[in-house]
């Protein structure tokens, strides 16, 4: 059985994924409101899933590493539903929803391939590292044998979470490879 046949066999006829536009920053609140309305208005047989596409990102600030959920499409929420007058009304009148995405007044469903790609990306993607260092920027080393030395960022390896810093000592510049957590930006 192909992926397409499998998708059709698990998805009821006439059910598609739609994109709704929300106020930016209110995606999770809209998802929560819509899930509450689905329950309270007994729409479980017409509105099946509500998803805010996110990906994990590791932020490193001031030598601290933390994992955050970053929205892939800020201002948008995905809804799997059978498009009826009732389901359209429930979604459209959920607080925080500004509109459906589509041509004119009729919402356009997403292609099955697009939805599969987005959902798969959410599940499988390894966290991305977000650093606030730039090549040529001055940083201070906070850990290791070169603690308290300052140097200039020469190379950033986001895959490995490493940064190469040119440190000057005894009148010579030497490259030092460090973990992102071992340096902090010098505010100039």
UniProtKB/TrEMBL annotation:
A GO term from the CC aspect: cytosol
Residue ranges annotated for the NusG-like N-terminal domain, each copy included: 14-122
Sequence ranges assigned to domain KOW in this UniProt record: 132-159
Entry keywords, A to Z: Transcription, Transcription antitermination, Transcription regulation, Transcription termination
Highest taxon of the lineage: Bacteria
SMART domains assigned to the protein according to its UniProt record, in alphabetical order: KOW, NGN
A biological process from GO: DNA-templated transcription termination
HAMAP family per record: NusG
Family: Belongs to the NusG family.
Task of the protein: Participates in transcription elongation, termination and antitermination.
Protein name, entry field: Transcription termination/antitermination protein NusG
Species of origin: Herpetosiphon aurantiacus (strain ATCC 23779 / DSM 785 / 114-95)
Lineage, opening ranks: Bacteria, Bacillati, Chloroflexota, Chloroflexia, Herpetosiphonales
Name of encoding gene: nusG
């Amino acid at each position: 059985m192909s992926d397409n046949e499998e998708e059709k066999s698990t998805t009821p006829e006439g059910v598609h994924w739609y994109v709704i536009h929300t106020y930016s920053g209110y995606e999770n609140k809209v998802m929560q409101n819509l899930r509450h309305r689905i329950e309270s208005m007994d729409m479980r047989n017409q509105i099946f899933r509500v998803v805010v596409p996110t990906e994990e990102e590791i932020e490193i600030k001031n030598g601290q590493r933390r994992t955050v959920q970053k929205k892939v499409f800020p201002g948008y929420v995905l809804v799997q539903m059978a498009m009826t007058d009732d389901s359209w009304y429930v979604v459209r009148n959920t607080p925080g929803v500004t509109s459906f995405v589509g041509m004119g007044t009729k919402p356009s469903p997403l292609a099955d391939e697009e939805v599969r790609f987005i959902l798969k990306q959410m599940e499988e993607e390894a966290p991305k590292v977000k650093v606030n260092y730039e090549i040529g920027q001055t940083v201070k080393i906070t850990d290791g044998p070169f603690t308290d030395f300052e140097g200039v960022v020469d190379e950033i390896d986001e895959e490995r979470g490493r940064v190469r810093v040119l440190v000057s000592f005894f009148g010579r510049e030497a490259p030092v490879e460090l973990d992102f957590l071992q340096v902090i930006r010098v505010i100039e």
